[in-house]
């Protein structure tokens, strides 16, 4: 996931946990979920581009996953169990060839669209192919790199022959041919690009207005590009073919473009339709959380989740004085993580980080701290390293950050770092930029500053999509959006990434990702700061709360209402 894309999973979402076991499946009162009623979703960001080709989701997304089924999906369970990939349209998570360059899937029997017509392997192939069309861009980019002969493919509107890398020998079988071994292909198959689209119903850029549903709900209204979505039951969806989605409510009413404070006020009051409301993208802020925590009734309606996400300091070693590893190490020692956590909203909303990988088993989390400075930093050690680097009288640097009030790359975090580094003799000048200017500056190798705040979220819960975009030298983009902020191009690291990608044993792969994280961390190209914690209110009539480590947010496919 791109650094600013948490809302995808969004843009939302570390050892995660949902509510306590006693209330994990309830919203108070009678804990048994029942069918019926209308679930309201109150969001800040509209569900734009509601087309499976254009959506950039993880695990199939939250609202999108109600309409679009994919070959595989995320396991809809609390905590770590929810970080696993499971079958969806397919009978299993995929059958790899010996070298993981060919993946075969078989569709379940009895799959139907909302109009009752059968879902076929050709529909899944076509759905993938249309995601390559320039006018439908926006989805995850992996397929263009992974599929044989796909690099220059322009989609079925311009190239009627389609992708030879995807074979459909019969109506239920798909065979994918990859350029290189990819043991995590089952994770990629959770993206909405793998949702079936019937060619005869494809209306191009207008498809988002009424996409043909393969999930438990169909779109009956899409106003203002996703600002208001109304979903009703798909009568041809069968729970017998779908072990993941519960589909308790009769209707899902999604309203977006709301101010975050208004969303939390409405969920707190829980009046009228808002009693059966949730949010999939709005956290409680520090002040709101303090108020909620003091009210037992409200506190019982807060879901807690952790998504694979890290906020960190990034260095550009091409810019002085950050070309000197001892300067980078000195800053790592000087950082006061306790003050950074406080600036992010306190320990209830942020957990200190010393590893780049999130602290979840699925990522391969391996505890390490190459520059141990304790909770509040080690100014003496930082000064010692600065002296070795030729800065015994200290130095002055500029820290670039966003002016957005996101408690991640914003002024509060920058100021906490500024104060901590001052104790080590480092004067930090702050360069705050409007968010679009900030993103443009830090993701362009020509303008990337030497010292700035950044963050990264995972496309799926594994070390691969977390480490490779940031540290694989072959992913440095010179004429576009670049996320390898340290401009690292180390042959041994690139080779190890390739070796891990060949593994279809994901537990073994996770251990290797953890070891690689430690190796990279010792180079001090980043200083991990904290992993966010998500605290979100839900209405008093909402039941069956499930929050997985995959998304870190309430899964609306599991929710029931009174």
Automatic annotation (TrEMBL):
It comes from Streptomyces similanensis. It holds the Pfam family SBP_bac_5. Residues 16-41 are annotated as: Disordered. PANTHER family: ABC TRANSPORTER SUBSTRATE-BINDING PROTEIN, PERIPLASMIC BINDING COMPONENT OF ABC TRANSPORTER. InterPro entries: Peptide/Ni-bd, SBP_5, SBP_5_dom. This is ABC transporter substrate-binding protein. It comes from the Bacteria. Transmembrane segments: none annotated. Residues 84-474 form the Solute-binding protein family domain.
